[in-house]
């Protein structure tokens, strides 16, 4: 499993398993398949409505806690200092864990960004109490990150953003990297969008004897992004993990970068 290191020295697996839109009833089978395939990093969130089921699946797996990397996120309606602390406790209880590896602000508050700054203070408290090993944000712009930098005593270690070949996020990704922030990309293969039918991707799949999805995931990893594809289909779960043993050339990475359309497939 490839890893990268956060600014505080914590190691994070670069390929994880996403739990977004995973129905609670499908969680036991999906996570057993994921664990059997080798995944040890789970990306969760309270708003996904399945953290209790994920907690049961983690418990049933028998995998040592130290061998897992578990991320969750505080949702918009829970933002604010005290409400964030309460939301964290609820997530920890649902997941049946003593600590999280990474806790993120899910979205910047659009109506009152000061509320997001209060939320960040709560994340710093959790970090200093050692209830979470690392803290970060999701969907934050350069301007919003700078506002956090200006008040933070602990800088964000991660920014999780929409990222796929049609939304490369070159400028934001570079800003994050330049400021010691690890990039994570959600919707990495674009919901099975036309991306996987693009001739640039399919030709590389033919060259390497891989699927188009595996090529796109390799592109993310080779450009330093942590990603977590999600599927309830066992074959796809295993396929998405099988991206070792090859790397794209700089020319091939540039060709995929060139597919950028600045195209959001999720909420902007």
From TrEMBL:
CDD domains per record: AKR_AKR1-5-like (cd19071)
Q: Which UniProt keywords apply?
A: NADP, Oxidoreductase
Asked if the record carries the keyword Oxidoreductase, the reply is yes
Ranges for domain NADP-dependent oxidoreductase = 15-260
Matches recorded under SUPFAM superfamilies: NAD(P)-linked oxidoreductase
Query: Signal peptide position in this chain?
Result: none
Q: Does the keyword NADP apply?
A: yes
**Family per UniProt?**
Belongs to the aldo/keto reductase family.
**PANTHER family per UniProt:** 2,5-DIKETO-D-GLUCONIC ACID REDUCTASE (PTHR43827), NADP-DEPENDENT OXIDOREDUCTASE DOMAIN-CONTAINING PROTEIN (PTHR43827:SF3)
Supply the name of the protein.
Aldo/keto reductase
Organism, scientific name: Lactiplantibacillus plajomi
